[in-house]
Amino acid sequence: MPIIVNLDVMLARRKMSLSTLAAAVDITLANLSILKSGKAKAVRFSTLEAICRALQCQPGDLLEYAPDSAPDSETEPG
């Protein structure tokens, strides 16, 4: 997936546990774990805002775009 979630990095920098963040953001620990693992398909702006507020960071500190390698059809000589 080309979007990488760096929530674990920010949690470590802020010395905050996932359960503490879940309580501060009012989101279930299970849903926050899905986001942290990168398995989430979407995130609401209101949730992202609450996480940024709790961690005192910017959305770009949490999310990173890393494009996949080029598709096979573009890498084959033609």
UniProtKB/TrEMBL annotation:
SMART domains: HTH_XRE. Residues 13-62 form the HTH cro/C1-type domain. Pfam families: HTH_26 (PF13443). InterPro entries: Cro/C1-type_HTH, Lambda_DNA-bd_dom_sf. PROSITE patterns: HTH_CROC1. GO terms for molecular function: DNA binding. CDD domains: HTH_XRE (cd00093). This is Transcriptional regulator. It comes from Hymenobacter persicinus. The lineage of its organism: Bacteria, Pseudomonadati, Bacteroidota, Cytophagia, Cytophagales.
